[in-house]
């Protein structure tokens, strides 16, 4: 396997001396994310005030004001990303991570975004959903020259309207997106009271095909992905979303995989209140418990978090709440298998008869996994194994949540008698 | 092949002596569905009145009132399901069938649902779309302990709002759903005049991967399913939906497969009037002829059945109106094949040159099929072979339909001159 | 490979002497499309006036008035279609092309459509979305007899409502649709001022699986298609859509593939204003930048073309903006490959190490391609290689566009300083 040092080392070599010393002073520092933990919201210190978002297992990019513009600096580069404890992948991203940092600004803001290319091939950035001059649209060959390896380009445009957008390359697009290159953009309304919510989470939906034991995605896979991720994390590596009981909650998502993801929230009805095209008029909204996220499409969902508890939040495609697995295993349900394992073991030492009584055992037992590979079904809850993977996490609604707490409040303490329980034959009181 | 007796026999052994004799008297009987025929609607004998639904090739679970609660009893167990005459499958389901019985109740009703696990592994039930206390949400490990094999658990909650919901396990989910474990829930409005329609049909969309000649689904298949089903039935095994001309008709569907299904109705425009999140406001509805059913998403569509006829009703993915087939067959269209079959037969005895002039012949001819396998294209209509399979049936709109007739009124009798006909060269009168 | 002559020759033989001489005089001539160029809109010479649409890389069928009916003549037949310069395919279509001609008429019009079957097997035509008598619905076996090879059938119905519809066979459906048999229907409003726009484009989304070097689609492919097309054309074979700055633009699409296509327009927000079920009420519309096209579903999107430029317009599934490729190629990103090519070349002469530094090189270099095969990533823009394929084209918004110009206005001339540019280290003026 490619080592981390060798994977990043090549990039470091390429990245050296990109911009002349004189130029560097004019380019804002490119901050780097240290790890995959969800960072606290970035409260703006200058410019118009806004209510910052929380990027799930991510962060927001710092910026500086210069000549009336907010200046950001994105560095496209190879990164090493932990998908969950026990598994890291060699990806391409921005500023140390995949996805890149969330860009937050305010309606009317003028932006100058420096993009430094530390990849081994050219790239561009397309600002998906943003209304901007044609030449800033970032389509390599069509609206601008490609950004060669080692060069820094600059994009300048004004944010015409508030909303939910994203950025990604429009150059060698299939490969660069399969490698994890994308990031979130949130444009806040000029008036912070408009579209105001109490908690505002954002993440991108992405997918990878990494063979068990390997670390680099296969970039030509069209359908048969095996790591279904949110912000390049899979369960149990995805942080929970903690909110206070009664909060108005918004969750904004964008899908950059190769298939639709029906994102389902337990315990609540919600509405889609915004898209990458703008805000959805109130009279046009539908009540939903599952939002079907199409590719290249963004949705903001909102609900009032009035019911306390640990509410599952996941893609409803059952394979997308599993980690990497073999799809060709035959079904053994109902087969009388006495002696079968012994016979197979003579042929295939170490073989485990998967699924003879279902596969729930896999959530409980220790299997010998290849190095750098997550169990297919995993996770421990307050009542035992959760048997999930991939695009699964929990919205944690609590009365006593702290203002600065976005991910951490432990397991829900059920009041007595409110959990499904074994029937003991006694007559219940109504 | 596993025999029916052996498949169910193992379950019967497990199911014996689940609950002590004392306890049994307190648990309502678990009724069992006898066969795959559509059962007449279950008219409520006590509790608030409502207009019951018709479950396509299914039935509604009986219940009893006790201490002000409606008590249901679901038994998770292996079942044998006929997909269409000529093919049965070894599935897992509830109360003798896959899907399980439809649960019908009324807004405000208090429910007590006993769930007995006669599977060889643990399970739970998640009540999809229902607003309930966190501990009744049915997510194994997260909100409750798993229900071990042989045990009975009890869920209790009140139905807060009317609508269209479903139930399915949240334990070893990928496998248990691939085996057919799910059922429909309809919560009727307190006021039976609200959202009232004349005919109200419900079914779940599910898919299986069963090799021709086999009977047990492969549970790890992610994409390449070969039996595209409604309520675990495929054409010509899916009953037609009979309605009287002028009826207001509602069809409620939920999708628990691994891909979207665009369900298309001929001859009509319809609106989506409800989801698993609630009722869609009138001003927010779109006119449609095809509703794209996302996974873990439910839709109620409605239309006024003003046009008599036999109207095709099917998934618009052309492969989903076919039964099991090989997808790797080369195209022979246009190839001069004289002598080719003879040559191939020397290599592959019994080989049939499929598709040299298209594949319509397959709808007409007898092919040697493996045991327990349906033809890929089949069905006989009033004008010849219909050449369909999978997710296909017919909405039959008739002037003279009887109140108790939901599936049976034969073929439509076209008035003279209203069928596309061969052109005979004579000038038509306008 | 099958030659064009042999492929069409077989059809010509079948097509001879279909209708007796007496009959032929009563059947309108079946016009044939000469090539894949976008034809100018067909301005109606008789009947109610309407604003005709532009069919992307297609045309509208001529008709004649007879006895108060508009008579059309569709001929189902094998065709040879150029997907893009350098690649042609053996398809089935109508009147010389796949898709067939667009049928345009006016709300209230009475139609008589002659359908001649020059295919080697039977067929029918279903008029998707059109409200018509059951016997004209075109479902072989169910609502009419199949149309045998060599016969002409006649359909007669009145257009009850304006909107966006399509036609395709409902006979051996999987194969006939996989071969390219479908066409667009536009019913214009009685009042030409209603739903009026300045430019109205239409196309169908279709997909094929043609092995590199071959020319005939594999008709059994369910998932792994390799040519993702609009009107049986792929980039760079899809014409651009030219509009004048300020125009109200409508683009109508229908999807007849086996998967959803999220169609994304750069630089604009749009609304879905119509479906195959009718027009969407204003209050029910959502602002979007991507419309998820489900199968058997049609959408009309509209926007005001106020921003000049060359705006990318494409499916957002990254593999769908590629041409045919191998999906099993391993990733070599980051691998130290010195000497590797030489070693592999000893095993596989001519092997190219794809992707060692990404795959952008492929948009720039000449690879040895099999005969009749398009590059995976291709296209030249004003700033270099565009690196796209499949479902990609450009909406060209210009101040000086001519009324009769729908596809051709060259590359956008960016005003100075409005293109993303290399950072030269100097301080920019705000």
Question: How would you sum up this structure, described in words?
Answer:
- The structure is a homotrimer of 430-residue chains.
- Helices cover 8% and strands 33% of the residues of chain A.
- The first copy, chain A, has 430 residues and is mainly beta.
- Mean pLDDT of chain A is 89; it is low at 10-22 and 348-354.
- Chain A has helices spanning 4-15, 21-24, 173-178, 340-347, 361-364, and strands at residues 54-55, 64-66, 69-84, 87-94, 103-106, 110-117, 126-128, 152-158, 163-168, 183-188, 199-208, 227-230, 241-244, 248-255, 261-265, 270-275, 278-279, 287-288, 290-293, 298-304, 309-315, 378-381, 384-388, 392-398, 421-422.
- Chain A is globular and about 75 Å long.
- Chain A folds into 3 domains: 4-197, Immunoglobulin-like, CATH 2.60.40; 203-320 and 390-398, Cupredoxins -  blue copper proteins (Immunoglobulin-like); 329-372, no CATH class.
- Chain A has 5 helices and 25 strands.
- In chain A, the strands form 5 sheets. In chain A, strands 1, 11, 12, 14, 16, 17, 18 and 20 form an 8-stranded mixed β-sheet that branches. In chain A, strands 2, 3, 4, 6 and 8 form a 5-stranded mixed β-sheet that branches.
- At the A-C interface, helix 1, helix 2, strand 6, strand 8 and helix 3 of A face strand 20, strand 21, strand 22 and strand 24 of C.
């Amino acid at each position: 396997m490619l080592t981390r040092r060798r994977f990043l080392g090549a990039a470091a070599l390429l990245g050296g001396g990109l911009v002349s010393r004189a130029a560097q002073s004019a380019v804002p520092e490119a901050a780097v994310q240290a790890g995959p933990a969800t960072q606290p919201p970035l409260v703006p210190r200058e410019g118009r005030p806004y209510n910052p978002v929380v990027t799930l297992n991510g962060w927001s990019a710092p910026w500086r004001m210069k000549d009336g513009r907010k200046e950001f600096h994105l560095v496209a580069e190879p990164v090493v990303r932990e998908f969950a404890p026990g598994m890291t992948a060699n990806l391409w991203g921005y500023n140390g991570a995949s996805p890149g940092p969330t860009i937050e600004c305010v309606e009317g803001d003028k932006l100058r975004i420096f993009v430094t290319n530390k990849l081994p091939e050219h790239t561009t950035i397309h600002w998906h959903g943003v209304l901007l001059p044609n030449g800033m649209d970032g389509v390599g060959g069509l609206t601008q020259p490609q950004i060669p390896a080692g060069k820094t380009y600059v994009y300048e445009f004004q944010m015409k309207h508030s909303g939910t957008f994203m950025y990604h390359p429009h150059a060698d697009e299939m490969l660069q997106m399969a490698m994890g290159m994308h990031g979130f953009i949130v444009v806040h309304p000029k008036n912070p009271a408009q579209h105001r919510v109490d908690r505002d989470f954002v993440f991108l939906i992405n997918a990878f095909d990494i063979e068990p034991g390997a670390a680099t995605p296969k970039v030509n896979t069209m359908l048969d992905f095996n790591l279904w991720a949110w912000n390049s994390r899979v369960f149990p590596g995805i942080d929970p979303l903690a909110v206070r009981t009664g909060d108005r909650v918004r969750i904004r998502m964008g899908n950059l995989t190769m298939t639709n993801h029906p994102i389902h929230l337990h315990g609540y009805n919600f509405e889609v209140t915004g898209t990458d095209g703008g805000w959805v008029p109130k009279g046009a909204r539908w009540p939903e418990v599952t939002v079907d996220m199409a590719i290249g499409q963004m949705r903001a969902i909102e609900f009032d978090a009035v019911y306390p508890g640990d509410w599952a939040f996941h893609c409803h495609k059952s394979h997308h709440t599993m980690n990497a697995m073999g799809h060709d295993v035959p079904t053994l349900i109902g087969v009388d298998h006495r002696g079968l394992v012994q016979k197979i073991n003579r042929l295939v030492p170490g073989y485990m008869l998967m699924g003879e009584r279902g596969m729930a055992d896999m959530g409980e037992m220790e299997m010998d996994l290849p190095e750098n590979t997550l169990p297919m079904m995993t996770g421990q809850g307050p009542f035992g194994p959760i048997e999930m993977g991939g695009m699964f996490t929990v919205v944690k609604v609590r009365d006593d949540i702290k203002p600065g707490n976005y991910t951490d409040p432990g397991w829900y303490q059920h009041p007595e008698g409110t959990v499904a329980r074994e029937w003991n034959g006694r007559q219940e009181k109504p």
